[in-house]
Each structure stands twice: as C-alpha cells, then as structure tokens.
Amino acid sequence: MAIKIMVVGGGGREHALVRALLRSPQRPTVICAPGNVGIAADVEVLSEISDGDVDAIVTAAGQHAIDLVVVGPEVPLVAGLCDALAEAGIAAFGPSRAAAQLEGSKAYAKEIMAAAGVPTAAHRMVETVAQGIEAIGAKYPVVIKADGLAAGKGVVIAEDQDQARAALEAMIVDRQFGDGPVLVEEFLVGEELSLLALCDGVRAVPMAPAQDYKRIYDGDLGPNTGGMGSYSPVVGIDDARCAEIVAAVHQPVVDLLAARGTPFHGVLYAGIMLTADGPSVLEFNTRFGDPETQAILPRLRSDLVEVLLAATQTGGLAEVELEFDDRWAVTVVLASRGYPVSSSSGDVISGLAEVASDVEVTHAGTACVAGEFVTAGGRVLNVTALGVSPSAARDGAYAGAEMIKFNGRQLRRDIALRAVERA
Ligand code: AMP
Ligand code: GLY
C-alpha cells in the first residue's frame, strides 16, 4: 500500500511540498490540512482544520491512518505538534517543541549559538528603553528584535535614536510582540543567504542554497514582507562552500542539541549574512522557508518522501546525499493590492490556464468563488520556472507571471537579477 502523508499548512510553501511529494517514485497518497484552493486541485484537503490546532491535527492524522506528517509553519512546531504526534505513535517531519525554540525564542537561539561557537551578530538583552538606548550608544544603524514569533514583524533596523526609541517602546512598553526579552543587535553588512539543512538528530545535510527578497519594492526598498521571490542556487555558493557553512553553523547546533537531550529532527534553516569576516547567522528557522522552498524543491532530484522519512529516524540520513538538478529555479511572488500593510480579497484572477505547462504555479492566498479563483490574502501566487541559466529561469518565471492578472497585482521585477548579472 502507498505511504500516506499529511502536509500541515496552507501556503505556497505547503503547495510546493505537496507537489514535490507527489513527484516521489513511491507514489504516496498526500493530503493537506488545511491546504488552500490551489492545493485542493492536486490533493484532498482538510480545510476545516486550523494549522495551529494541535489536537485536531493529531486526531485527523489518526483517522486518516497517516504514516508521516510533514509540518510547514512554525506556529504548530513551537506549540508541540511533533511531540503530540510522537505520543500518538505517528511519525512527523519537524522538530520537537524544545528544539523548535531555536525559532521560537531569539534569546534561546543566541544562547545556543554562543555555547556551540556559531558566528552570529553581537547582541545585548535589554529590559528597559533606557537600557536599550544606553546599550546602543552611538552605533547606528542598529537592529532591535523581539524575542518570540512575530511573523517576520519583530525586527526593526533603526537608523537613529528616534527610531530606536520608537522600536524599543513598541516592544518593551506596548508589548506589541509578547512578553519576552528584547535584543539589541549589531547591524551586519553583506549579502544574505538562506541555507537549509535536513537534520536527523545527529547530522545536518545541506539542501541547495537560495536567496529570498524580503522587501516589497525593487532594489530592496520599502517595508519587509513575507517574501516577494526567491531563487536557487546562488552564484559562488557551490557544494563545497555549502558543506563548509553547514559544518560551521548547522552541525554544531545539531551536536549541542543532541548533547542536551533535545535532538533536532526536521529542517534547520539558517538566515545568514555573508560578511567580509565570513558567514554570520541572523536567525534560525526550524522549518522550510517561504518562498525559498518554492525554488529549492523543484530542483530536488532525490526522493523527498525517502529523505523526510529518514530525517525522522536518529541517524537516518547517514547514507543520504541530496541530489539537485543543475538547472536554476526562480520564483516570483504575486501579491495583492495593499500588501504588506494590508491585503485585498475577491479580485478575480485570470490567465492561470495560459501559463506554460513547465512553469509551476503554487497557491498561497487564493479562494474560489463561483468557479473562479480570486485573491484571498497578501501573497497570492508563486510562479516558478527552471532554466539552464539564471536568465532562462527568470524569463520563464516572468513570462508565467505576466500571464496571470488581477486588479492591484504587485510583483518585483528584479528577482534573481543579481544571479543573471554574475553568472
Ligand atoms: P530575522 O527575522 O532575524 O532574519 O530578520 C529579518 C531581516 O532583518 C533579515 O532578513 C535581515 O534582512 C534583517 N536583519 C536581521 N538582523 C540583522 C543584522 N544583525 N544586521 C543586518 N540586517 C539584519
Ligand atoms: N523566507 C523567510 C522565511 O521563511 O522566514
């Protein structure tokens, strides 16, 4: 009988996971909770289940005789979904609640990095606005971070004391991002890299490197978003360099967590700044990146089912080396009017059927009304193309993106342009 897999989550990342699982030679049965209307066109979805509802997910996984649950978003991981599934005897791809604290608490991540000798920006924890201002001194710009999960909004780059004071007040006085501590962090200069590694409790195995585009406008201008595009691989970051970075960043963390009795299983995502002094970690995520996953997984040639299952077993990845297609992948995000400050719903989406069949369109914020796809969120769709060069992949992705129209559509025009210029 085919293996039965449940993907948890309902965005573009989960759609990319579903598609990659369906490409497995094992021909798995895949379902998704809650999924979205795009995912529902590929597999069965349990749309009534919230991705944060641990009990409902465990119950549904039992009822559907699921062999493996693959968890997309961070919220259920930090809430202990993988622990609850383990208790119910169901295999889960993802870290325990304890290991997910690497993403759930920036203070904890800093403590682990210090203990494991992983390079990261210098920081201080502060408890009052005055302490924060004092800790910063004259060093601007500076980065101010709230401790807990903040859906990407808990990081402020302050250019001067007024901005720093406003950020500290929002975090410490108004408690906009919860009760946790606040970090004042050294501002690092360089280019960012997303390097994800699959982990089996003892070993970290690098995936293909990627870069994402966090700002809403071309040229990295405007406010931060959930991500407006991504591409993979990255010029200058070859296999040997990936292995070096994983040895300096991911593996020491995996070793330390194993030694502390909270082994890391799942995917460890390091957001890295490539500084003049070498790589330095900006953050850890304990899940697949969005939208990096939409560019990385279409390049994966290994059997995703096999490697995710292997990661659930202690030492299961010992024999595994991930194989990636030599081609480039570029993902362009289509966002709705108002994003990231607000979002727009109900705008009719046209042209989906005209997109070339070798371009992968994954859904994020869409709904179906009277048989038509409409916008239903900030990030609406992801358009991914493979190509033998960065420019071929870019051309494919933008040709696909151009076909798809809706009122207020926003997209960046410079995704992967950097790679084209360097290749
Ligand atoms: P984080 O959620 O910690 O990755 O921060 C979000 C974004 O803020 C990062 O992707 C960077 O663009 C920026 N950022 C975070 N920390 C720093 C830092 N220490 N120096 C410069 N930029 C940073
Ligand atoms: N691409 C950034 C993230 O997934 O957090």
Describe this entry's structure for a reader.
This protein is an alpha+beta fold. It has four domains: 4-94, Rossmann fold (3-Layer(aba) Sandwich), CATH 3.40.50; 122-186, Dna Ligase, domain 1; 189-312, ATP-grasp fold, B domain (D-amino Acid Aminotransferase, Chain A, domain 1, 2-Layer Sandwich); 328-422, Glycinamide Ribonucleotide Synthetase, Chain A, domain 4 (Alpha-Beta Complex). Helices cover 31% and strands 28% of the residues. The chain contains 15 helices and 23 strands. It has helices at 12-22, 37-40, 54-63, 74-78, 81-87, 97-104, 106-116, 129-136, 161-173, 239-248, 250-259, 292-296, 304-312, 390-403, 417-422, and strands spanning 4-9, 29-34, 44-45, 68-71, 91-93, 123-126, 142-146, 155-158, 182-186, 191-200, 204-206, 211-212, 215-217, 221-224, 229-232, 265-275, 278-285, 328-335, 344-348, 360-363, 366-369, 372-377, 379-387. The strands form six sheets. Strands 3-2-1-4-5 form a five-stranded parallel sheet, with helices on both faces. Strands 12-15-18-23-20 form a five-stranded antiparallel sheet. A four-stranded antiparallel sheet has the order 6-9-7-8, with helices on both faces. Strand 1, helix 1 (12-22) and strand 2 form a beta-alpha-beta unit. Helix 6 (97-104) packs across helix 7 and helix 7 crosses helix 11. It is globular, with a radius of gyration of 21 Å. The site of adenosine monophosphate has 13 residues, from strand 7, strand 9 and strand 17.
Strand order of the largest sheet: 3-2-1-4-5
User: Helical proportion?
Assistant: 25-40%
- Shape, principal axes of CA atoms: globular
* Largest sheet geometry: 5 strands, parallel
Number of DSSP-assigned strands: 23
Stretches where pLDDT falls below 50 for ≥5 residues? none
When the domains are counted, the total is: 4
**Would you tell me the structural class of the helices and strands?**
alpha+beta
State the end-to-end CA separation: 45 Å
pLDDT averaged residue by residue = 95
Question: Which CATH class of the largest domain applies here?
Answer: Alpha Beta
Q: What do we call the CATH homologous superfamily of the largest domain?
A: ATP-grasp fold, B domain
- The CATH architecture of the largest domain comes to 2-Layer Sandwich
Radius of gyration in whole Å, from Cα?
Answer: 21 Å
Bound molecules: adenosine monophosphate, glycine
Percentage of β-strand residues = 25-35%
- By DSSP (H or I, 4+ residues per run), the number of helices equals 15
CATH topology title of the largest domain:
D-amino Acid Aminotransferase, Chain A, domain 1
